[in-house]
Design brief:
Layout: H1 2-21, H2 27-32, H3 40-63, H4 67-81, H5 89-120, H6 126-143, H7 147-159, E1 165-166, E2 169-170, H8 172-211, H9 219-233, H10 236-246
Antiparallel strand pairs: 1-2
Helix pairs in contact: 1-3, 1-5, 4-5, 4-8, 5-6, 7-8, 8-9
Length: 249
Amino acid sequence: MIRSMLRIATFIIAMMAMSGIAGAQNFPADILNTPVDGSVASWIIRTFGLITVLSVAPGILIMVTSFPRFVIAFAILRSGMGLATTPSNMIMVSLALFMTFYVMAPTFDRAWREGIDPLLKNEISETEAMPRMAEPFREFMLANTRDKDLQLFIDIAKEKGQTVVVDDKVDLRAVVPAFMISEIRRGFEIGFLIMLPFLVIDLIVATITMAMGMMMLPPTAISLPFKILFFVLIDGWNLLVGSLVRSFT
């Protein structure tokens, strides 16, 4: 597990660096060192672009993985149970990250074998490595994207006179947003199913307290321990995590 995480961390660092140096001939002299030919403005623009890409690369990598669905489901679970800060955000995000590593391990391994490893061995150039690293992610996203969402961005591109499908291959600028809205939609679908049993418990408790004339007692104060007990008795974490992992193809 540690070895796999180290490989993923190396892969992320390489992707961040590759995003900034793709197309540069000599990274240290071209990007970071002050130019000697007087083109200071060009150097400043390239350096600013590199820093910008490095700052957004982790977010980009997260949004092309299974992470959004996990986070949305966990957030709705916590809201449905009525727990404002328990489990804490760090616990929820950490669990989502480790589940993402588990689900995305085959994709990361393939991207490593086909892109990063040959690049580190100087068998291919940066220009060849980028498409090889992106292809496993493209296939993962397409396998988990609704056709309707993908077609939406293809149609929008056609309306604007742009081409996002070349040789039956959809460009990433259409695949990524389509994948993201598909993941958000599935996250809310799962969240709806999670909320239902907790809503039933809240309704039952509210009905009983109203019938007993306890108007000043908040129903949530009574229903909270019952919802926690219910979730523990059905082994909710096992069921939820197992269902989320199995929901990816």
